[in-house]
Every structure is written in structure tokens, then in C-alpha cells.
Design brief:
With about 240 residues, this protein is mainly alpha-helical. It is built from ten helices and six strands, in the order αααββααβββααβααα. The chain has a two-stranded antiparallel ribbon with strand order 1-2. A two-stranded antiparallel sheet has the order 3-4. A two-stranded antiparallel ribbon has the order 5-6. Helix 4 crosses helix 5 and helix 6 packs parallel to helix 8.
Length: about 240
């Protein structure tokens, strides 16, 4: 059995000898796959009970290989499936117990009464404010500013559509280049106009009596949205004289 002197220094040595990692080392290990992860995000996930790192006598966090793997799972499920932390926690806990833990759809179910012309059973994935703040590593004041410019719009119950995670991440990245939220109002206005154009095409399909035609409206909307985004990107590249993939 390894013997170490008592006190903070001994605890730190024991942690290193047992293969535990500091929060900085964990950050470096994760950034290859998750370049936007931050120390504050890791601390937030700990405060939400997603991981439980050990502590040295001096109070420093020490993470095991299992902790790092669990963090990777959490970040992956947030990024790829937009799952709320509660669902992610239950999923991982079930896996650790050796139970089957299939990925499920999350969010409230909208019925045809919720959205005119849409079939029932449409799933809307949502995230809470705390998760949104952690995703962009911002505070509530910054989020409030972004909302004031219409870049982020909360749902009626105060939660956010899952796509808001992508929006806040991109706004934060643009901010590193000195592009402020007020500069992005023109992009929001352009997006609204493009959405309006798509809506003009699919609205008659959504109001059709035939359920199959109404279902086709959603597929058509996705197709048109993808085409408008490709055209928008191509026009921006052309305007800048860029030849990017």
C-alpha cells in the first residue's frame, strides 16, 4: 500500500500515483473531440450530478478514467441528441447498472391542435436555461442581450428549443472575432425572410385534408430549408471571393 505524508501535498501525490487527472488535464483530453468545452462547463456538469470526481485534502478535483469517459458520453449526448441533463443522467445510471438504456425522444408532444395542419405526435426537444448557459459558457446577462436582438427566443414555459444550443454556440464563437450580437440582427432578419419564403410554399400542404399530404409538408420544408442554406452559403462565399468547401 502506498504511504504518503499527511496533508494536501501527500493527497495530491497519491492522486497522481493512482492515475487520477486534474481538471486541466481532463479539459485537454476532451478538447480533441469537444473543442468548445470549458472548465466551467465541467464544473457545471459536476454540480448537476453527472460526475463525482474525487477531492484531495486540499480540495482539488481529481478525475478517474471512468469520470472522463462519462464526461465524454454526456457531452456527446448533448451535442448529438440535445438531451436534457436529467435524461442523460438516467441513461448513464441505467448503463452502469447493466440495464438496457435505449435512446429516447425527448420534449413535449405537440398535437394537431398545437400546430395547425400538423399531425399529432410531433416531438419538440427542449433544453433548460442552465444547460443553454453552460453550452455557450455565458451568463444570464449575455443571454438576455441575445434575446433582446431576437437571436434566441424562449418557449412559453421558459425553456428553449434544442436548436438554441447551436445558435448560442455559434454566437459565442463569432464573438471571439469581435462580432457582437447587434451585428447579427441582419443575419436574423435574412433567416426570417428565408423561413417566410419556405413557409409560403409548404403552408398549403400543411392545411390539406389528406394526412399524407400534411406529412409531406414537413419533408418538403426540410428539403427547402437545406437548399436555401446552401444557396445562402454560396452567395456569401461568392461575395467574399472565397473558395471554401
Amino acid at each position: 500500500m502506498l504511504q504518503t505524508p499527511s496533508g494536501g501535498a501527500g493527497g495530491g501525490t497519491a492522486a497522481r500515483d493512482s492515475g487520477l487527472m486534474s481538471i486541466g488535464a481532463v479539459l485537454n483530453a476532451l478538447r480533441a473531440e469537444f473543442p468548445e468545452v470549458t472548465i466551467s462547463k465541467i464544473r457545471f456538469l459536476e454540480s448537476e450530478g453527472l460526475i463525482e470526481p474525487q477531492r484531495t485534502p486540499s480540495g482539488y478535483r481529481k478525475f478517474s478514467t471512468g469520470d472522463v469517459e462519462r464526461l465524454g458520453h454526456v457531452l456527446r449526448m448533448q451535442r448529438d441528441h440535445y438531451l436534457p441533463l436529467k435524461v442523460i443522467r438516467e441513461h448513464l445510471d441505467a448503463m452502469e447498472r447493466g440495464e438496457a438504456a435505449p435512446m429516447t425522444l425527448v420534449g413535449r408532444q405537440r398535437t394537431a391542435d398545437d400546430v395547425e395542419g400538423l399531425p399529432g405526435g410531433r416531438t419538440v426537444a427542449r433544453v433548460g436555461k442552465a444547460e443553454l448557459l453552460a453550452a455557450a459558457d455565458i451568463d444570464e446577462e449575455a443571454l438576455g442581450e441575445w434575446e433582446s436582438y431576437g437571436l434566441i427566443v424562449p418557449l412559453e414555459d421558459g425553456a428553449y428549443d434544442a436548436e438554441a444550443v447551436t445558435v448560442v454556440s455559434l454566437v459565442a464563437q463569432l464573438g471571439r472575432f469581435g462580432i457582437e450580437p447587434r451585428h447579427l440582427r441582419v443575419m436574423k432578419a435574412a433567416a426570417d425572410r428565408e423561413a417566410g419564403l419556405v413557409d409560403q410554399v409548404v403552408t398549403p400542404l400543411r392545411r390539406h385534408r389528406n394526412p399524407q399530404t400534411r406529412a409531406l409538408a414537413e419533408a418538403r420544408a426540410r428539403e427547402l430549408a437545406a437548399l436555401t442554406m446552401k444557396l445562402h452559403a454560396a452567395l456569401v462565399k461568392t461575395a467574399l471571393g472565397l473558395h471554401l468547401p
